[in-house]
Amino acid sequence: MQPTIEPMRGHDIEVVARLRIAAFFEGTGRTLEEDAAGLRNLLTSDGLEKALVAPVNDVPIGTCLLVRHELEPAHDLTPWLAGLVVDAGHRGKGTGTALVKAIEAHAASAGVETLYLYTWQAREFYVALGWDAIELCEQDGETMMLMSRRLDHNVPRR
């Protein structure tokens, strides 16, 4: 069964921020309040940037973002698929794939030709979805992969 993917709403922010802190920012000093503030900014963006959620019983169990800037100042590329995370108890059911495809479709409908991402551990996941590895990068002593994907512009524009 295909997971439902929806735009993030205000009442989703705290749950999404908790998912993101646990997945990406544990031990970094980034607070729940800081992450929630960044997510709130996406709700009022100009329409290109987007936060999507995969809810189960109206509670987000996964999220993915489309943002203009990621990991400054590593690259001047834009825009970015960022922050893909699915709660551990819900992985392996297609939610991550559905979130990525929804962000790709949104970006293509906005006229984006190439989308970028960084990944530390999920290179094979993204390669299976058609992403290409560009280069290995270092951030805070950790190796990550810069990847890109050319988007299909047969998607109707909004």
UniProtKB/TrEMBL annotation:
It comes from the Bacteria. This is Acetyltransferase, N-acetylglutamate synthase. Coiled coil: none annotated. Residues 3-152 form the N-acetyltransferase domain. PROSITE patterns: GNAT (PS51186). It comes from Mesorhizobium australicum (strain HAMBI 3006 / LMG 24608 / WSM2073). InterPro entries: Acyl_CoA_acyltransferase, Bact_Acetyltransf, GNAT_dom. GO terms for molecular function: acyltransferase activity, transferring groups other than amino-acyl groups. It holds the Pfam family Acetyltransf_1. CDD domains: NAT_SF. Keywords: Acyltransferase, Transferase.
